[in-house]
Write a structure and sequence with these properties.
This protein has 107 residues and is of the alpha+beta class. The chain is built from 3 helices and 2 strands. The relative contact order is 0.15. It comes from Blautia obeum.
């Protein structure tokens, strides 16, 4: 797993109110959406991220409001970061790069 990309994804989510990055965002141009999605899925699997989906409607005309004929349905997603799991994950990264590290640190 590309550690630099993992940390960029977490930072982007934190800075952009839970929005997920894609390859059109600054700093992610050198990565594919598949690589970014793999990182997001990995972070979700280990508990660092919790992805919430919600249904939304987009109104595009005037008509029958009761039947929603003038609305497009779509889903939005937000990522929530577990601070505790993020600290554990960052600690594991430090131990991978410096196995002799046994000190304490703040995130």
């Amino acid at each position: 797993m590309n550690q630099e990309l993992v940390l960029k994804v977490v930072s982007y989510i934190a800075d952009h109110l839970g929005n997920l990055p894609d390859d059109s965002k600054p700093g992610f141009e050198n990565y594919t959406n598949d690589e970014i999605d793999a990182v997001v899925n990995y972070l979700e699997e280990i508990g660092v991220l919790n992805i919430a989906l919600s249904k939304a409607y987009s109104y595009y005309g005037i008509g029958d409001v009761k039947s929603h004929d003038d609305y497009d349905e779509y889903y939005t997603s937000r990522a929530f970061i577990s601070e505790e799991k993020l600290k554990e994950f960052k600690a594991s990264l430090i131990q991978e790069t410096d196995p002799d590290f046994s000190g304490s640190f703040l995130f």
